[in-house]
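Render this sequence as a predicted structure.
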Amino acid sequence: MSLFPSASSKATLIGLTAPVCWGMSVGLVRSITEEFGLAAGLSVLYLSTCVFLFFLLGLPKLKNYSKKYLFLGIPTANVCSLCFCLSLYLSDGGQQTVEVGMVNYLWPCLVVLFAVLFNGQKARWWIAPGVVVSFLGVMLVLGGDKGIQPGQIWLHVQNNPWSYLLAFCGAVAWAAYSNLTRAWSNGQNPTLIVFAIDSCVFTAIWLAGFGDLSHASIMGWVSVAVGAVAMGGSYAAWSYGVTRGNITVLAIASYFTPVLSCLFATLWIGAKLDGAFWQGVAVIVLGSLLCWSSTAMRK
């Protein structure tokens, strides 16, 4: 038995760094958009990330990408980025920011579900209750101390419907991107392309007159620097991992991203999360683990 990990194991280990970085993203994006405004803040963040990725990955060779991946697969990652950032920007305060983040973190169970539906992944029957449990976890998060009361949850969501809807759309888009990357990428890592497109979009909005850098604090610039490394590194690691590594191992690790996200948010943006919220997070993780376990024993 070799003492050195195989290429697949190395790719999996690299991919495992992505959930740690994603756990930081909710707090960082919220902090940056508060400091700079949506367009200016995200333009600076994504441009900084592009510079980081250029030195990490180098320039991509577009000729190595299939046209269907360039024009159909990669744009799903851009949709995810836009939905995710807009949902956090539109959220009202630290508590709702983390709630919106939890809606977005339905993506781990959706990654597995989409793999079953569209990528030929075999699964056992309990994938269905796993998806249901994940959604129940989100309802617990939104219901708070009142628990799962659909009427109260609906009223809660109606206070800021676009924020929650965009977060869910982002989860769907990321699940699609993960599976399309597995199917169509031919082993190529498109992370720099994704961030370059995102930076162009946000820069165009900024140049149209939205956002101002003049009032940003030292904390805002620190958030940009940390965010560039965290977001760029996470996308690069995840894309590499799902292309060359064990996607089910990466999926189970990603299911703990909500926990990491909540812990970081309490430190970075001062979100105050009660016991009911953490119960909901635990149920989301449980549902995602059920989804993963339904595929882990099937080839």
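Summary. The chain has one domain: 22-296. The two ends are 23 Å apart (CA to CA).
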